[in-house]
Amino acid sequence: MRPAIFPLLPDAGCLLLLLVSWLFNPTRSEITSLDSGNIDDILNNADVALVNFYADWCRFSQMLHPIFEEASNVIKEEYPDKNQVVFARVDCDQHSDIAQRYRISKYPTLKLFRNGMMMKREYRGQRSVTAIADYIRQQKSNPVREVQDLEEISSLDRSRRNIVGYFEQKDSDNYRTFERVANILHDDCVFLSAFGAVSKAERFSGDNVIYKPPGENAPDMVYLGSLTNFDLIYAWTQDKCVPLVREITFENGEELTEEGLPFLILFHMKDDLESLEKFQQEVARQLISEKGTINFLHADCDKFRHPLLHIQKTPADCPVIAIDSFRHMYVFPDFSDLSVPGKLKQFVLDLHSGKLHREFHHGPDPTDVAPGQPIQDLASSPPESSFQKLAPSEHRYTLLREKDEL
């Protein structure tokens, strides 16, 4: 009689090993590869998209790939709808046209998009699964705080920029446009909303949006355009939320430096708001036409002692105005000359013309020397840029180009 043959079954240890392997090695999610043919469709239909601009030969890109994929796995467990959150990537060597379109200057660069619109602030946080996942959760949180009583509006933190919307209904085109704007600018302003009976007292002429600027006595500003026209309300809100003169900190220094524009900086003590207000007024009066050619900033003298030392100043000398061109630093001669008509503007124009650079190396321009006075070539060495050190680190990115500033 032939013996019965039974199939071999795995023992309990093997079954446990298979189970553990399955639990800790789940099916990896696919990162969407973007190209010229699909990028607009995919990004336009995504509530939030995090895009990794990379190059295969870049070692920092290679290090990020598995972290980016695992963060995608974690987030897709929480947001399974494919259009809620998209993790995507662009091979910038293969698609240089896309890299140029989004002005990629280093690898890897992580850019956030909302409904196809690229956010100004890219992801610059820690490159870990936890940090990237937390960043996406933050981006998915509601950017607008609903108030239940108008008394909450009267007790707002007036050191912040506040945008308040009063709406009859939450389910309305007006509010949806407001919420879309808030999604983009919530890092720059605090957005609040009130609905129905709570907002009725503020809706005497219909739904409206109000800007409450910093300062207890600063007057409110009312948006007068269409509440369903995204471009109009976005432009108005951006103008209110992103001031002409911004504060530079160690947290945003890399971002500001990477914009590539020279800095015109007021160094002032934190509680010296009078000097800051004068600087803001003169920048608005004299230099509004230079917006886009130079960044207007203010900095805490105590926090930025090192740049002050570069120009042989200390906090005791503040307020001090200087230009950092990312190559050299130049000092505005005297803060008390700030209100002299055209003086601050000429300082900036002298940077653009190269005059500041020439004079530091060779003494006054011939046109500035009195008739009959001999022209002397005075060799000098202007202080090196201090804020250039806040630029993206070569130990974190592959930088694609160097800038030669004045």
- The CATH class of the largest domain: Alpha Beta
CATH H-level superfamily title of the largest domain: Glutaredoxin
C-alpha geometry: globular
CATH architecture of the largest domain: 3-Layer(aba) Sandwich
Mean pLDDT over the residues: 87
Helix content: 25-40%
- Ranges with pLDDT <50 over ≥5 residues? 1-27, 375-379, 402-406
CATH topology of the largest domain, which one? Glutaredoxin
**Secondary structure: number of strands:** 17
Query: Number of helical segments?
Result: 14
Say what oligomer this is: single chain
Biggest β-sheet description: 5 strands, mixed
Total domains, how many? 3
Structural class designation: alpha/beta
Give the neighbour order of strands across the main sheet. 1-3-2-5-6
Which value, in Å, is the CA radius of gyration? Answer: 28 Å
Signal peptide: 1-29
Region (Disordered): 363-392
Pfam families: Thioredoxin, Thioredoxin_6
Keywords: Signal
Q: How would you describe the overall organization of this protein?
A:
By secondary structure, this protein is an alpha/beta fold. The chain has three domains: 32-140, Glutaredoxin (3-Layer(aba) Sandwich); 145-241, Glutaredoxin (3-Layer(aba) Sandwich); 246-363 and 379-394, Glutaredoxin (3-Layer(aba) Sandwich), CATH 3.40.30. Helix content is 33%, strand content 18%. The protein has 14 helices and 17 strands. It has helices at 12-24, 39-44, 59-78, 96-101, 129-140, 151-154, 173-185, 196-199, 230-241, 253-258, 273-286, 305-310, 343-353, 355-362; strands at residues 32-33, 48-54, 85-91, 106-107, 109-114, 117-118, 144-146, 162-167, 190-195, 208-212, 221-222, 245-247, 263-268, 295-300, 320-324, 329-331, 398-399. The protein has a five-stranded mixed sheet with strand order 1-3-2-5-6. Strands 7-9-8-10-11 form a five-stranded mixed sheet. Strands 12-14-13-15-16 form a five-stranded mixed sheet, with helices on one face. The longest helix has 20 residues, at 59-78. Residues 378-388 have a biased composition (Polar residues). Pfam families: Thioredoxin (PF00085), Thioredoxin_6 (PF13848). Residues 363-392 are annotated as: Disordered. Residues 1-29 form the signal peptide.
